[in-house]
Amino acid sequence: MADTHRYFPDGLPEQLLRAGDLELLRALERPTLIRVPGSGTQAPRVISALLHGDEVTGLQAVLRILRRRRAYPFDLYVLLGNVPAALAGDGFAHRYLDDQEDFNRVWDVEQVDTPLRAAAADILARLRAARPEALVDVHNNTGDNPFYAIITRRRPEVVNLATLCTTTLLSWDFGAHTLMEALEDECAAIAVECGLPGRPESLAFAVDALRRYLGEPPLATDRVARDHDLLGNLRKVVVAEDVRLRFGGQPGPDADLVLDADADVHNFVELPAGHRLGRVRLGTSASEHPPAMPLRATDTSGADVTDEVLSIEGDALITRVTATPVMMTRTVEAARKDCVFYLADELAHLG
Ligand SMILES: [Zn+2]
Question: What residues does CATH 3.40.630.10 cover in the chain?
Fold first, then answer.
């Protein structure tokens, strides 16, 4: 377990706590797990940040909390995830590196045959051995979204944890080997999505959410404490291979599909069937009319549902059903490395 990650069982050393964000990461070099010993007997709580190297908000929020040097009535575990990706270039520019996988897709996988998978396996073993009560995994979005929390289990304690952070909840059941899913049967595990990185309001939300989490007595397991909205039935929409994508502008020789530059304004807003998401490049020969569908939609079972939810009319790419887009990105890199957006439906809330 030695070299896959760094482990600090007694908190971060003082000189590292005083370092700047990037200075700290340079000293750490690797995925890092920190245990801040608690003063009581409550089950440990976990915060993870930087599973995606370009999502700085979680790191900044958790450092602000750690620098106060508070002791909690439980051991607090803090995971700083893809430190190498966060350090690359000028810092916080890459979700993951070209020679890596996505660090939030490698938890509890069968084949442990890369450094990142080995780090995930060793860190997961430590976290499971600690028998935590809860995990909050802090992320940013690559497009404009309201603050929301992702849950994978509809148990009262999971909903109670999520609604400490925000009452807009998204039910996720893709089985994507995320950290949250790896711990979902052992503790209340959620992800909080804190809007775009680098914005003061994103950081303020994350700090607020984490402070409420750390200040909360043990989570109620027998009742849902707060009203909330719950979206689910997610369908993942990705760019088809070989399709050249752009945000804003007109389709042309260098862009087969152009999504509106501000397509992300529709995140978490229910859209009627027939809503135009973008424009496609029309072919020059008759055989290319109508153009091929440039996006692919799949449901959580992996079934292709593209034709159910999307269609092309003229040069317009439109929705075929009433649905709510979520996590719509505004960057080509995120669209390629993950997805363009998800379509969701409103579900009955709990409690
Ligand atoms: Zn993320």
Answer: 6-227
Q: pLDDT of 291-346, one tens digit each?
A: 689 999 999 999 999 999 999 999 999 999 999 999 998 889 889 888 999 999 99
- Which helix (H) or strand (E) covers residue 150, if one does? strand 148-151
Helix (H) or strand (E) holding 307: helix 306-309
Calculate how far, in angstroms, residue 142's C-alpha sits from the geometric centre of ligand 1: 9
Q: How far is the CA of 8 from the centre of ligand 1 (A)?
A: 24
Contact 135, 190 (CB under 8 A): yes
Cα(56) to ligand 1 centroid in Å equals 10
pTM of the model: 0.92
Percentage of the residues of the chain whose pLDDT score is greater than 90: 87
**Model confidence at 198: pLDDT above 90:** yes
Dist. CA 140 → ligand 1 center (Å): 5
Q: How many Å lie between the centroid of ligand 1 and the Cα of residue 144?
A: 14
Please give the distance of CA 156 from its chain centroid, rounded to a whole number: 22
Higher pLDDT, 57 or 282: 57
Ligand 1 center from residue 274 Cα (angstroms): 30
Residue with tokens 């849950």: 151
For residue 335, how far is its CA from the centre of ligand 1 (angstroms)? 13
Mean pLDDT of the chain: 94
Tokens of 258: 């152009």
Give the whole-number percent of the chain exceeding pLDDT 70.
97
Contacts of 96 (CB under 8 A, 6+ apart): 52, 53, 82, 85, 102, 103, 337
Distance 19 CA to ligand 1 centre (A): 24
DSSP secondary structure, 288-303, as one string: G-SPPP-EEEE-TT--
Cα separations in angstroms, 174 against 34, 181, 331? 29, 9, 22
Tell me which architecture the domain covering 6-227 has in CATH.
3-Layer(aba) Sandwich (3.40)
